[in-house]
Design goal:
Radius of gyration: 12 Å
Largest sheet: 3 strands, parallel
Strand order of the largest sheet: 1-2-3
Number of domains: 1
Distance between the termini: 25 Å
Oligomer: single chain
Structural class: alpha/beta
Order of helices and strands: EHEHE
C-alpha cells in the first residue's frame, strides 16, 4: 500500500521566486491527513534547485523533488 493518501503535484519552470510562498501556504494548511508534496522541475535555468533544497530542509511535510 502507498505511504500517503494524498499528493500535491507542482510542476515548475523558472519559478524559483514563487516556490517559497507556495511552500508557506502548503505548510500552513489545516488538513492534517497523510500527504506529500511532489515538485517536478522541468529544466529550469534559474535557482530553482537551490530554492527547493532550502524548502525541503525547512518543511514540515515530506517533499519529493524530481529534477
Amino acid at each position: 500500500m502507498y505511504k500517503y493518501r494524498f499528493s500535491i503535484f507542482t510542476a515548475t519552470y523558472n519559478r524559483a521566486l514563487m516556490l517559497d510562498s507556495l511552500a508557506e501556504m502548503i505548510n500552513h494548511q489545516t488538513f492534517k491527513g497523510s500527504f506529500e508534496w511532489v515538485i517536478v522541475n522541468d529544466g529550469s535555468t534559474d535557482n530553482t534547485v537551490e530554492v527547493v533544497n532550502n524548502i525541503i530542509d525547512k518543511s514540515k511535510i515530506p517533499i519529493k523533488f524530481i529534477d
